[in-house]
């Protein structure tokens, strides 16, 4: 698949087939994540991969934004101690790093026919307890993965000339 096809084709999927993701595909998805850019190469991210169905069901109970029956969850976290090495911008930089890692993972998943959906709505305290996440690690995002029952249609995007500015704000970048 062409990279632009992958970028344009990836959608948030919330309804999944009852089908496991092969270990080799999981490894590809996770490896794509760790090759994302990382500010100052701090790699302040930590990821908890959840495959246990019972544990996924427990996480769903504390995550109002988590729908369907995903085969896998990945919980993206910031290692606050590592992020401190980045000074005042360490934590916001780590948030961007986790986001870019997840974008890589979601694009890789799509290229393998696997859907994904980012979830921000969850109880952090309960999640930390369920997954035994230490105090210095802060969960910031969950992404679900699984084989979608269907691929949603792409939403309309604002045109380049409307959102891209050339040299100064207000000067549209003409295509």
In words, what does this structure look like?
It is a single chain. By secondary structure, the protein is of the alpha+beta class. It has a single domain, classed as NADH Oxidase, CATH 3.40.109. Helix content is 37%, strand content 17%. It has seven helices and four strands, in the order ααβαβααβαβα. It has a four-stranded antiparallel sheet with strand order 1-2-4-3, with helices on both faces. The protein is globular, with a radius of gyration of 18 Å. The model has no long low-confidence stretch (mean pLDDT 96).
The poorly predicted ranges are none
Structural class: alpha+beta
CATH level 4 superfamily: NADH Oxidase
Helix content: 25-40%
Distance between the termini: 25 Å
Mean pLDDT: 96
Strand content: 15-25%
Could you give a short account of the major beta sheet?
Answer: 4 strands, antiparallel
Identify the strand order in the major beta sheet.
1-2-4-3
The CATH class assignment is Alpha Beta
Number of contiguous helices:
7
Rounded Rg: 18 Å
* Large-scale geometry: globular
Task: Give the number of DSSP strands.
Answer: 4
User: Any idea of the CATH topology?
Assistant: NADH Oxidase
Q: Which CATH-level-2 architecture?
A: 3-Layer(aba) Sandwich
SSE order = HHEHEHHEHEH
Q: Key features?
A:
four-stranded antiparallel sheet, 4 strands, NADH Oxidase, 7 helices, 175 residues, alpha+beta
List the helices and strands and how they pair.
Elements lengths: L2 H7 L13 H12 L10 E6 L2 H9 L10 E8 H4 L6 H22 L3 E5 L4 H7 L6 E10 L13 H4 L12
Antiparallel strand pairs: 1-2, 2-4, 3-4
Helix pairs in contact: 2-5
